[in-house]
């Protein structure tokens, strides 16, 4: 009977070990499946990352181009402003010179006019 009990106990132990082995196989299959999903996800994410990097490179290139254009526009605006300031200065100088000449002409005209009036009075009838 003792032998029979040992056989029963060994049979239960074997069944328990078989159950444990089946559970471990199932867990291994689940982990393999999870591992494959992780690999696929990693590959997809890597592909998306490459796309994002390319987009980022394009945006950086466009940003550089825009900044260069803005620099050019800024330079043109600065040159235009300097040109306007120079033209304004030139016109202001001409206006001042014209005003001086007009003042001198008026003075000369007044002297001439006053001188001629006195001469004309001599010839009044």
Secondary-structure element pattern, one letter each: H
Main sheet: strands, sense, barrel: none
Report how far apart the termini are. 177 Å
If you average the pLDDT, what whole number results? Answer: 90
Structural class: mainly alpha
What would the principal axes of the Cα set say about the shape?
rod-shaped
Strand content: under 5%
Q: Count the beta strands.
A: 0
Taking pLDDT < 50 over at least 5 consecutive residues as the criterion, the unreliable ranges are none
Task: State the share of residues found in helices, binned by percent.
Answer: over 70%
Rg from Cα: 52 Å
Q: Please, how many helices?
A: 1
Could you walk me through the main structural features you see in this protein, from its secondary elements to its overall organization?
Keywords: Coiled coil. This protein is mainly α and 125 residues long. It has a domain of 61 residues. The protein contains one helix and no strands. The radius of gyration is 52 Å and the shape is rod-shaped. The N and C termini lie far apart (177 Å). The model has no long low-confidence stretch (mean pLDDT 90).
């Amino acid at each position: 009977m003792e032998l029979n009990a040992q056989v029963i106990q060994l049979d239960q132990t074997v069944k328990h070990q078989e159950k444990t082995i089946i559970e471990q196989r199932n867990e291994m299959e689940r982990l393999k499946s999870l591992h494959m999903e992780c690999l696929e996800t990693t590959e997809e994410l890597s592909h998306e990352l490459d796309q994002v990097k390319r987009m980022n490179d394009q945006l950086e290139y466009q940003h550089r181009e825009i900044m260069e254009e803005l620099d050019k526009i800024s330079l043109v605006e600065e040159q235009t402003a300097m040109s306007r300031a120079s033209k304004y200065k030139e016109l202001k100088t001409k206006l001042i010179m014209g005003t001086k000449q007009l003042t001198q002409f008026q003075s000369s005209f007044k002297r001439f006019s006053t001188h001629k009036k006195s001469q004309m009075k001599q010839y009044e009838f």
